[in-house]
Amino acid sequence: MFKKTNIRFIIIGIALLLAGYSLFWTIAYNTFSDEKMEAMRTDGTIDQFEERTIRLGLDLQGGMHVVLELNIPRLVETLASNKTPQFDALLDKSTKEHRETGEDFFTVFRRNVEAEDFKLVRHFNDRGYKNSEIIAGLQDESKDAMQRALQIIRNRVDQFGVSEPTIQKAGQNRIIVELAGIKDIEHARNLIQSTALLEFTLLKDPQVTQSFISSVDNYLKTGHQDIVNVEPAAGDTTVALKESKDKAVSVNELLGITEADVEMESGDNDTSLVVDEELFAERPFSSLMRNIHNSIGVPEKNVYAVKKILADTEVQKLLPYDSKFLWSAKPERVTTADGKTENYYLLYHLEREAGIQGKYITKATATIGGAQTKASGQPIVNISMNNEGAKIFSRLTGSNIGKFLAIVLDDKIYMAPRLSVKIPNGSAYIEGLESMEEAKNLAIVLRAGALPAPVDIMEERTIGPSLGRDSINTSAKVGLVGFLLVIAFMAVYYKGAGLLADLAVLLNFIFVMAILATLGATLSLPGIAGLILTVGIAVDANVLIFERIREELERGKTVRAAIDAGYNRAFRTILDANVTTMLTALILMQFGTGPVKGFGVTLFWGILCSMFTAIFVTRTIFNFRTDRKILKKLSI
Fold first, then answer.
1. Which one, of 30, 127, 40, 123, lies nearest residue 84 by Cα?
2. Kindly report the CA angle at 269 between 268 and 275, in degrees rounded to 5?
């Protein structure tokens, strides 16, 4: 029996050591000064503490609350197998009416289709023949897209490292996301909202691009709306190859708009443009651009004007329908001939249809580019495709050697390398990223998959921690008062045995907090309520045991026999009561979200720990006392 008691103490000691190790990170983290925290954040050592501390919920430490809406019109556009100007016009009209009136999109879309007697089968040839069948199929697809969007956002947030987020559907097309403890709101917003639609798209031939630009030059210069494509001059294959003196021209002078209409993307109120003085009079559109590494570069101040021109209705008619223009994701710093450094955005002319999409990606990893890549020493994202994707990518690269292939993510181009060899294994990498953190976030969204359609932020609130501090203080006071009252009652009513029960309650609290820290769980107000409830449950178990021991002592049994009988008789009752409560807690953990799940987590582990402390720990101490000497009287 003595050896069995020693084994029991060893088990309790191991549990205490593990609990102490788990709580060490939380205790140390909360004792660091602001200067120490900043220094550790700089060298990156703070991460190991933040990963192992007990995290507080949205109601205790603040965070962000976002309401998202799935962009159904964009989903319909994506699902269309054939796109024409007539279909685009119908979709634009329905989208505008849907947003202005708030009416269901498919109701508006069906009404406009019927009014124009539009044949949808030409654009959705795999969804039936009747318009009603096609629209019903699109509605079903939108419901499926909503479920996929929910799961993808969950996967992204889980990989982002936010514990117990609230991600739930609201209505037909909306999703509520609540993230506790988020410090970088911008990164979190981009992670959630990013469609992550990765495409590999070929660039148009330079001759086609130059022909379009020349047409736009003529349109701006003459004002005629019936300009046809003009063949580029002999030997002129790219924009603004000549080096000449720049001058400043107002947006008014070029476009005839007021300064109030101009919202420069840089936030600067200066509406002047940088143009090539020699080209401006003859080629006003070309003069807005520069030749940057044999690509079309646009000075940052000219970006608004170029976008305005490209969005013009008549200019759109000049653009070949099988093509589109996209911008680089980041500006490029370029040193001009006079020694000045300026920001330039690259403008790319691409095929409208992508050669291959990112849905075939099976692996995405953030790393540092090696010496064999052009991005040596820079953060990149390596991607790998499945067998089907590798075959498509192999055909795409093999049949277009010498051409440029743009890597497009959410309509922004990160790089556009020239294809020099066939790539048979489906491997590629994305460069042009500012930091390793950006590379990691990009890898997360690529691994989680692309959203079926963009999600628009309908509401966003940043919740400050002031509410959390008040809640923590109030909850701590209430919990402490309740804890002290329970301890005092047990000590007075059960005397020495009551103090033993108080020790069990204290150990129960330590074990629960250690488990929460180990699991990386989030503690919220409902979680604190669950902790307080487990204190009562733990005491209740000891009350049952002590009352049974009293009964056995009154029957005349010895102290040791009364203790054994008391624990044996109470065990079944305690087990039945706690198992049913644990099952309820498991249901809350499995199917609950946010605060409900937090309550279930603390309740489940609190009950489990209470059974360990109330039955195993207290009996071990009783056995230790009775093993050392025969007790004739027990203070209970």
1. 123
2. 80
What digits encode the pLDDT tens for the residues 433-479? 777 877 887 787 777 666 777 888 888 887 766 555 676 677 778 77
Token pair recorded at residue 277 = 């003085």
Lowest mean pLDDT among 157-171, 327-341, 381-395, 414-428: 157-171
Distance CA 382, CA 29 (A): 34
Q: Which residues contact 439 (CB under 8 A, 6 or more apart)?
A: 366, 367, 379, 380, 381, 433
Domain contains 18: no
Main-chain phi, psi angles of 57, to 5 degrees: -75, 175
pLDDT at 227: 32
Residue of 538 and 97 predicted with greater confidence: 97
Q: 569 and 490 in one domain?
A: yes
What phi and psi, each to the nearest 5 degrees, are found at residue 230? -110, 130
394 DSSP assignment: H
Cα separation, 137 vs 106, in Å, equals 11
Q: How confident is the model at residue 15 (pLDDT cuts 50, 70, 90)?
A: confident
Per-residue tokens: 60: 């205790």
Q: What is the pLDDT of residues 23-61, one digit of tens each?
A: 887 777 667 666 766 666 566 566 666 666 777 776 777
DSSP string, 242-279: S---EEEEEHHHHH---GGG---TT-----EEEEEHHH
Question: How far are the Cα atoms of 92, 267, 370, 417, 514 from residue 366, in angstroms, in the given order?
Answer: 38, 32, 12, 20, 32
CA–CA gap between residue 160 and residue 179 (Å, rounded): 11
Number of domains observed in the structure of the chain: 4
Q: Which of these ranges, 117-131, 146-160, 229-243, has the smallest mean pLDDT?
A: 229-243
Give the Cα-Cα-Cα angle 235, 238, 240 (nearest 5 degrees): 100
pLDDT digits (tens, 9 = 90+) for 257-292: 444 444 434 444 444 566 766 667 778 888 888 888
Are both 236 and 316 inside the same structural domain? Answer: yes
For residues 345 and 316, membership in a common domain is answered with: yes
**Kind and range of the H or E element at 525?**
helix 525-554
Q: How far apart are CA 380 and CA 440, in angstroms?
A: 9
CA 182 – CA 204 distance, rounded (Å): 42
Q: Is the pTM of this model over 0.70?
A: no
Specify whether 131 is located in the same domain as 71: yes
Same domain for 294 and 154, yes or no, is: no
User: What are the CA-CA distances from residue 623 to residues 5, 8, 10, 190, 342 (Å)?
Assistant: 7, 10, 14, 60, 80
Task: List the CATH number of the domain containing 408.
Answer: 3.30.1360.200
In whole angstroms, what is the distance from residue 511 CA to residue 504 CA?
A: 10
CA distance 232 to 240: 12
- % of the chain exceeding 70 in pLDDT: 81
How open is the CA angle 563-566-568, to the nearest 5 degrees? 110
Range(s) of the domain holding residue 378: 355-433
Q: Are residues 183 and 207 in the same domain?
A: no
The answer to whether the CB of 463 falls within 8 A of the CB of 63 is yes
346 phi and psi angles, rounded to 5 deg: -90, 135
Collapse the DSSP code of 198 into the 3-class scheme (helix H, G, I; strand E, B; otherwise coil) and give the result: strand
Mean pLDDT across the chain: 79
Q: Is 376 found in the same domain as 332?
A: no
